[in-house]
Amino acid sequence: xxxxxxxxxxxxxxxxxxxxSYSRKNSVGRPAKGQWIKQRLQKxxxxxxxxxxxxxxxxxxxxxxxxxxxxxxxxxIGRNETNHVNGKKTxxxxxxxNGYHPRKIANMLGK
Length: 111
Fold this sequence. Notes:
Blueprint: E1 2-3, E2 11-13, E3 19-21, E4 24-25, E5 31-32, E6 35-36, E7 40-42, E8 45-50, E9 59-62, H1 63-71, E10 83-84, E11 99-100, H2 104-108
Antiparallel strand pairs: 1-2, 2-3, 3-6, 4-5, 7-8, 8-9, 10-11
């Protein structure tokens, strides 16, 4: 399990795509226990709702992007997208070996 960049000390992700929320104090100052964050689908892609340290509101984040960012590294210049090797985008198919950063032109051509 590794910390998610931009959310260090708040959230971590496993190689299987599960996201953990670390124990911390909530907005009122009460302790909040660490827990696994529930995933849901948005346009067919698994997402989790995360909130940054100084943000009142959070937003949905794509899990497959976090997986590649944490375990593979930042995408090369011009490859800001994340694709699935086998084309499936279900929660079951969240694997590091199933993700890659495509060339933009290949993605535009549907290859």
